[in-house]
Every structure is written in C-alpha cells, then in structure tokens.
Amino acid sequence: MQLGKGRTYIIDKLPLQPVQGHQCRICLRSRSRARQANRACLAQAQSLDYKQAGVDIDAGAELVRRIQKLNPSIGGFSGLVPFGDSFLVAGTDGVGTKLKLAFDMQTHDTIGIDLVAMSVNDIITSGAKPMFFLDYFATAKLDVDVAESVVKGIVEGCRQSDCALLGGETAEMPGLYQPGEYDVAGFAVGSVKQDKVINGKQIQKGDVLVALPSSGLHSNGFSLVRKVVEVSGKSLQDPAPWGGAGTLGHALLEPTLIYVKRLLALTDAVHVKGCVHITGGGFTENLPRVMPKGLACQVQSSSWEWPPLFQWLQQAGNIATPEMYRTFNMGVGMVVILPESDVEKALAIDGAGFVLGTVVTGDEVQIV
Length: 368
Hints:
368 residues; six-stranded mixed sheet; alpha+beta
C-alpha cells in the first residue's frame, strides 16, 4: 500500500476471518451537576430537529432534483448498467458524523462494517448480489494502527456480504482534516439478472410491507444524535440511559446490519416487488422512492414498538414525532414489499420480520 496510490488486492476468495492545578472535588461535582441541569432545561425548552443540528434534508432533496435535470436516471438507491443478460449495480456512501463518536470513543473497528453496509444495503434493494467493494480513507496524518482497525472492519463487512474487498485508496492530506480525524467512503458493485431485477414497477394497491429490524441507528441521523447527547448532559462513557449493558457511546456505535444474505434468501423464495433501505431521510424520504405514481405506503405505527434508544432520543431532545420518522430508521432497517399471498412464507423465512403496513392509494407516506 502506498500513500496517494491505489490499493489493489488480488484475491481468489475472501478470507473467512477479518485481517485484523488542584480543585475541590465537591466543587467539581457541583459544577458538573449544574451543567447537566442547565442542559436538561435547554432540551426541555426547545424541540430539536435535524436542521438545527446542521443537516438540511430539504436542501439535499433539492440537490437531487437538480441533478435529475442533468441526469434523469438518478434517484434510486443504486445505479444499473446493462451487461449481457444482467445488470451491473453500483452504489456509494460514507458513514457521516458517526465518525465523530468513533473519534471520541477511540473505537474504530466497527466503522468499516458500517461503511460496507451502507453501500451493499443500497445495491441489494435491486436484488443484486454484491461482487466487490472499494474503499477510500483520508486523513491529515496517517495513524497506521487506526487505519488498520478501520480496514479490519471493512474486511468483516465484506465477509458478511460475501463480496471481495478489491482495493482502495489512502490519502494523507495535512491541513484538510483535524488532527486524529479521518473520513471514509465506500463503493460497492454487484449483479442481478435482468429478469430478476427489483424495481417497484409491479407494486400495486394491497401489497404488504414487511419490515426487517435494525440493530440501532445504523449510520444516519448522527448530527442530531450528537446534539441530543450534548443537551442531555450525558457522557458517552455513561451507562446507556435506557438500561441494558454497555455505555451510551458503544450503544450509539452499534454497527449497521448487513441485509444481503437475508434479502437474497427472500428473493429466492417469494415475489419481492420492492425493497427499501431505511437510510438518510428515514421513512418519509425513502419509502416513496420505490412507489409507482399514485401509490403510497401506509405504515401502521401500532405494528411495532420503538426500541428504547429511539424513545430516549425523542424524550431527551424533545423531538417531534414526524421529525423522528424523517430522520431515523426507528428500529426498521429494511422494508420489502410483497403480494399478500407471500407474506406468511416470507415471515417464516426471516423470523425477525413483521408486517409494517400496506400499499394504498396516495402520494405521500401515511403513518397511522
């Protein structure tokens, strides 16, 4: 591996294992309690949203609309190129400000899993089996141990996806990043037979939404999450406020689930008409991406209980319910759309899945 040059791995088969001054103590406590009380009052006084945390979903949607004018095929979860009797399917993504928590916690070995997951979970929505993955790692000054830890996670993510880590790029750019920080991006390519592609065109009224649970936040919404942690007065080293084992920081860093093998098992057995990765934009922005014109997803909010993490985020940040559904996955990482006749079989194949709602007439997501 050379800095500034591509990293290329020639492999026959992916390895099964990852590469792997004095002050009074009482005064300090009092000040800490006062800060926590002030932050708690602040959280109660204002309702936090993603835009206040620095992320404008509307601006992102406007950019997509402008790009679509330049290239009308843009807008799905991945891009498809005909190749013989198949499509090559490609996707790219990053991890976002979840990295900030990794820096604070000095925990880097799961970020690579997140990186792979965000891209392969996008291309699997077309029914494509991932073939290979490429990564990009950029930093101000290379810390070899940290970079190795990140790549170990990438290898593990590729193992879970049954795809090859084909290569990547390491860039050392002094002055562009803060000391001790880095950024990552990933690129996945897969393939699917043209007569097996999932594109949503066959979805019709009465079809059923089946949800596959998430492992937690996955890799979206972390600018708002970090703002909630700030106003709550909690430390990342504190126990998770909703109970259970582990610290708040480690709970927030739980790696993104990779759905590749589960979705391939479903597509082999039932008629999957549409597949939605609940990524940035939550339910509100992602469910419409596969709906034919005139149809919408009706989500039954009584069909599942928000995991405690999301309940805590809403309470601690005083976040409005519509904003929660527009920002987070709410415990649902993937949604498959099936004919009602296939639902029972699908639930038997994936025991963790549950019926989330149905397809109805309309233009916007309905959460009832």
